[in-house]
Each structure stands twice: as structure tokens, then as C-alpha cells.
Amino acid sequence: MLDIRRLHMLKTVAVRGSITAAAQSLELSAGAVSQQLAALRSDVGVDLLRPDGRTVALTEAGRVLLEHADRILAAMEEAECAVAVVKGTVGTVATLGALPSTVARIVAPALTALAADHPQLAVTCLITDQAQLRELTLGTVDVVLGQRYLHLPETTPKGIAVSPLLDDPLLIVTADDGTAGGSDERPVGLRDLATHHLVLPPPATDCGQAILHACHQAGFTPTTRYVTADIAAQLTLVRAGLATALVPRTAIDPTTPGIRTASVEDHPILRRLFAARRHTETTNPTTAAVITALRTAARQDRTTHLPPA
To answer: Nearest-CA neighbor of 214 among 194, 231, 229?
Structure first.
């Protein structure tokens, strides 16, 4: 009989690309992972991995076995969810993956609410810009607070359920020269930024791609003086009068001194924040509690920033 843990190791190696990377992810030694995969190879009687430069790749037999492993692992999680629903209680542990730009306005309020409503639940939060949905497929995290820029194609992996939380526009951020009241100035045309020195995220990031796409639609190539994905660094450069930034609204503390914000009038740049979980027919109560808290925090943030009547 196949060992479920070995199947999970095979999937992890396939996704990570190497035994070493998989071992680090699983918090095991590379030797231990190699030993378990050798046992799996013995169980099925055929090679499952082959060298591929500095990495490894699945053989044809490995790909077939992984397809079945995915279904087996999904069925195991479905069974766990069904039992959790019968128990009818929120569990004691969960792991949330989230973007740095969502911490202050959504993640922190959500975790505060969870602590009040479910004091037995300990949530580990992994804050990173890296491929969170991949971690979700591997079971490293239980819920992901992710983003998608609306001009980019949908790339949700198979087996992932996504619930939209909030449409989050990028705002133009400039230094406050004292002549106006800081936030929510009149909208500005993106084309007006053609003469500005901009601080932008790296072009390989989703946000960087979205900004460049919008600028090209507006008829210009931006003058990028500074490149960083660190929003705190971007705002520091803005306050110093060295650059103009385009930053998601939820990533900006409205009480931050020394900056002014304005919406983009002609070519808005919008990211959609979403909560994602592994798809099961029955939703685990613990996962549901985390997503509900995120949804409530996002709704409160949206209400706070509705335009005045």
C-alpha cells in the first residue's frame, strides 16, 4: 500500500524542483527525503524522478502517480473537513499567508477579531510577496490573502477556491508641500506623471507590470528613478520629495505625515484582494473562521473609505 506521506514528499519535490528545497520546506534532511522517495520508487517498481540540470523532474510514471496523489491528498483533506464539521468547533491552529501591503488594514484587524471570537485558535501568519498560492497547494498554509491585478490573466492553480474581498485601487502619492490637506485630493491623470521621477516596484512583479501597462496605455514610458517593492521605502522617498509613487490604498496609513494621495483619473490601476483556500466540498470550520474575519476586516476598510454622500 502506498504511503500518503511519501506521496506528499513526491509532490513537494515536483513543486520545489529539488530534493534539497523540498527537504527545507518539510523541515527534514535531504537524506531523509531521498530515503523516503527511494522507498516509494521501490513500492511502485519504476523511476519517478530524473535529473534535469541542477534540479529534478518527474518521469512519465512520476507524472501519472502525482495525478493520482493529488486526488488522494484532496480526498484525505475532504475527510478531515467532514469530521471537523461534525465536531462543529473551530480548531486550535491555522496558518495564514498574506502580503505585506495588507497587514495594517486587513490582517491585523482580522487577527484581533479572531483572538476575541476564538481565543483557542493560534494563527501563524507568513508575510511574504512570494508565491503564496503555491504554498497553499502544498499545504504549507491554510488560507492565503492574495492579490490579482485586473489587467493580468487569471492564474489560480487547480484545486484552489477563491473568494473576492476588496477592489483596491492604486493611489498617486506625492510629497505634501503644505498647500493642501493631505489625502483624497482631486483625481490626477496618469499622463500627468510623465514628467515625474517615479519610485516603482520591480517590473517583474505583478504591481510593477500593472503600473507599466497603465502608463503605456496612457501614452508614455515612466521615468523610473528608484526601484523597490518595499512600500515603506517608497513613501520615505516620496516624503523627501525625491519621487512620486503609485501605492495600493490599503497599504497607506491615512495618518502618515508628509504625503498627499490622489486617485488616478484616466487609467485606474486596480488590484483585487482575495481569500483563497484549498477547494473541498465541505469547508473546514477553522478555515471558514479565518476567511470570515478577513472578509469582515476588508468590508470595514471599504466602508471607511467610501466617498462622502
So the answer is: 194
